[in-house]
Write a sequence for this structure.
């Protein structure tokens, strides 16, 4: 264990996050869109609700201005979700689609908003062809 100059143990860094939750189909399309971009812009992603939803970790405070139809953003306000360096899912009943360490610490909300919009348009176009 690392120690400080005063020989006090250092806690591993933790990052508070909000979570944007979307239906799995739209979320998976958005992950593909984000990963195909010029710069990979997707942070850790949770797969939850028995596979029905995806949760994108976003910076704290995102929930205050989140207004994307068909999604929700849960504000943690420092009392809930903490992203630890250990790859254990921070939400019970979920599993990592993209665990920490394989992705940035959080997805940029503006970039996520664009990817979710594009994903929704792709889904609507695909469903309209059937």
């Amino acid at each position: 264990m690392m120690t400080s100059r005063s020989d006090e143990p250092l806690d591993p860094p933790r990052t508070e996050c909000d979570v944007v939750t979307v239906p799995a189909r739209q979320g998976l399309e958005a992950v593909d869109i984000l990963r195909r971009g010029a710069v990979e812009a997707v942070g850790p992603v949770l797969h939850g609700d028995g596979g029905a939803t995806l949760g994108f970790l976003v910076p704290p405070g995102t929930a205050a201005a989140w207004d994307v139809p068909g999604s929700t953003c849960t504000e943690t306000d420092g009392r809930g979700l903490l992203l630890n360096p250990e790859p254990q899912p921070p939400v019970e009943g979920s599993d990592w689609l993209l665990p920490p360490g394989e992705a940035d610490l959080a997805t940029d909300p503006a970039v996520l908003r664009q990817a979710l919009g594009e994903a929704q348009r792709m889904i609507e176009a695909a469903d309209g062809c059937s």
The radius of gyration is 16 Å.
